[in-house]
Batch of 2 targets.
Target 1
Amino acid sequence: MKESYDKSVQLHCHVCGNTKLESNDDKSWIKCHNCGKEYHGGYDELVEFNQEKINQEFEETKEEIFKDLQKDIGDMFENAFKGNKNVKFKRK
Ligand SMILES: [Zn+2]
């Protein structure tokens, strides 16, 4: 299993889909470099527009973690019964 499942979701401009965004220091204001759209709700507003993509990314990460977990548990059991001739494990 991996140490970390950090995923960064690139935020897109809601108008043109551009990812080059300009923001002030506390991210309370964001402006798109491409179309000039200003988000006065800042980062939170943009996250709201991107929520669907973020959710999708989260689902994918969840599946990845689950698969890794299953593999780890399989290894654990195999190791626990190593040398025991009565127990055989078959990997699917
Ligand atoms: Zn834009």
Target 2
Amino acid sequence: MRRISRRTFCKRVAAGAAALGLSLGRRTAQGISKQAPAGRPNIVLILADDLGWMDLHCQGNNLVDTPNLDRLAGEGMRFTDAYAAAPVCTPTRAAIMTGQSPARLGITNHAPGHPGGFAPPGAAVGEADNAKYLPLKHVTIAERLKAAGYATGFIGKWHLSCRRGHRGRPPLEAGLRPEHQGFDSNVGGCDYGGPPSYFDPYRNPTITDRRAGEYLPERLADESIAFMTAHRDRPFFLALWNYAVHYPRQAPDDLLAKYSKRKGRGIKIQAYAAMIEGLDRALGRVFKALDALNLADKTLLVFTSDNGSLDGDNRPLRGVKGYLYEGGIRVPWIVRWPGKVEPGTTCTTPILSTDLYPTMLQAAGLAPETGKVLDGESIVPLLRQTGGLQRDAITWHYPNYAFHKENRLGSAIREGRFKLIKHYDDNSVELYDLGEDIGERNDLAGSLPAKARRMRERLERWLGESGARMPKRVLKT
Ligand SMILES: [Ca+2]
């Protein structure tokens, strides 16, 4: 009963904030208290790449086995309405590192992306300009934690640097890797999106010692365990940003064989399902190592994804990676923090990746930088069940064309149970009641015109305040 009442509390908090009509917009976070340094937890931030909202057993997919992540959820809090800051890799990762929205950062599409103004044949609008990488001027969460005495390690996929020259300048990739953005060490973090093969990932210049036949998620787990072991006696920040489950679809033979027999709703591609369990198996070794090192009790562990699934079975959600429909942005999100987060809880308050920066700062007892605009908000009150969030809406801006997809350029806002998507090709909007219609089938823009107009105005106000770059009229060639 206690757990049920706590869930209800979380819901009530979200509804209460909406009823108060609290504003969304420019806001400088303040008033975060300092903890004693001795109480600082380790922070392990695990990202999966392109893992969809329905891709885990604990999220309701009964055809995929993810026992280790299920156990993690049972030991912590699972957020049902968690979102990536963007429907593709790079802007979400930039938002995590800075606490600022892709719109404010001007980083709205995956690197390297098209040049600004690009439009596919027949399209009505061309892309907004996009910064393509995370400039060094930003103070990252790794830089903050490092300055506070944390050992900082990056392992896995980065995708925040740029291999190609930008606006005529020489290539910057080597100067924009994790080790230049606050991490003491970097294994795997360079420019490219996916590995050519999960069994031979060595196009990556930071992994030079080949080990025959190893599976990349297992190698990244090995590297993570080595990092945690080396720094077990001091606070550390480990970013384990997996390449899985981005294509190519590759998994160990035993899992491929296991899933080759599984069919049904929840599995669209069997090798993809095998890969999900392959990731879960590797993460299980990381979790076990935390226990063996006696670190689990003093570690804040977050698991989430950088965007929705590209070609998994996203039902009941609409859309995939690259779209502002729920399938493109809604993601799994689990937090374990022993002694702080009650085991086995769920929270329905909408959160998004931009919240990680202020959350990690608060967990480490650090205040946000003076004068920095934070678009995210610390979710520590939700984790500790001491209160709700101040905001009552979250927003997205995706004025770019995703590779592989024919998405429409747009922006979106979720306010309570309602979500509005604005399209730039014809200036139309769609409005959905996610409480009744999680699959976004029944567009209410026509039947609730006043609500649609108000949400659209609020979205446009936020875009203006954020300095968001806008799509361009198509250039005649
Ligand atoms: Ca991704």
